[in-house]
Every structure is written in C-alpha cells, then in structure tokens.
C-alpha cells in the first residue's frame, strides 16, 4: 500500500519549488492532496493492490476523466460555484459534490465491495 504521509511529504517538497502565491498552483495543490486522501480511502475499502492504485493515479483513462471533469464543471455552474470571468471554481465544486455524497443527497452509495 502506498504510504500516504510519505506521498504528502514529497509532494509538499515539490510544491515548495513553485510560487505559493499563485492561486492556480494552490488550487492544484489542494486538489492533489484531496485526491491522495480519497485514493487511500477507496483503496482501503476496495482492497486494491499497489499496481491497481498506481494505475488509478497514473490517469490511464484521460478521455473518461475529461468527460467527468466536464460534468463536474456543469455541476459547478448549476450549483453557483462560478468565480470572476464566468469560470467554475473547481475546489468549491468538488466540495459541493463531496458534501452531497457525505450527506446522502447522491443516494445510497457504498465504497465497499459488494
């Protein structure tokens, strides 16, 4: 299993090489930290091995991810997560989706193997 704390530590070192005041870099940093956390949770719940986790993290299905991202942007627009210039705030949208998931608004979903 990937050691999440070690991954976070290494990513923080890498991030320190860039402009911390740049909001886009900061958004990407927060997003990546959230992805690492969620990957760990999902991996534990699904009993994934190291190779399976790495496949997820390597983004093998880019086309599918682009479709998912487009859907996320549509959700952001519909839920009012729009910032100046008409752009969708990715972080706010992700938080809206996570909160809907946690509160059960998305229906009964389990991350366990069935």
**Approximately what portion of the residues adopt beta-strand conformation?**
under 5%
DSSP strand tally:
0
Order of helices and strands: HHHHH
Rg result: 16 Å
Query: So what's the overall shape?
Result: globular
How does the major sheet shape up? none
SSE-based structural type: mainly alpha
Molecular structure report:
With 114 residues, the chain is mainly alpha-helical. Helix content is 66%, strand content 0%. The chain has 5 helices and no strands. The two termini are 21 Å apart. The chain is globular. Helix 1 (4-15) packs antiparallel against helix 2 and helix 4 (62-78) crosses helix 5 (90-103). The model has no long low-confidence stretch (mean pLDDT 77).
Which key phrases capture this entry?
single chain; globular; 0% strand; 114 residues; mainly alpha
């Amino acid at each position: 299993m990937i050691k999440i704390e070690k991954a976070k530590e290494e990513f923080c070192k890498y991030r320190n090489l860039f402009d911390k005041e740049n909001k886009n870099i900061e958004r990407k940093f927060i997003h990546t930290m959230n992805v690492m956390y969620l990957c760990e949770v999902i991996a534990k719940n699904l009993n994934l091995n190291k190779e399976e986790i790495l496949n997820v993290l390597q983004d093998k299905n880019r086309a599918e991810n682009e479709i998912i991202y487009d859907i996320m942007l549509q959700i952001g627009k519909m839920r009012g997560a729009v910032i100046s210039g008409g752009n969708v705030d990715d972080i706010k949208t992700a938080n809206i989706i996570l909160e809907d998931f946690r509160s059960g608004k998305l229906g009964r979903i389990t991350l366990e193997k069935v």
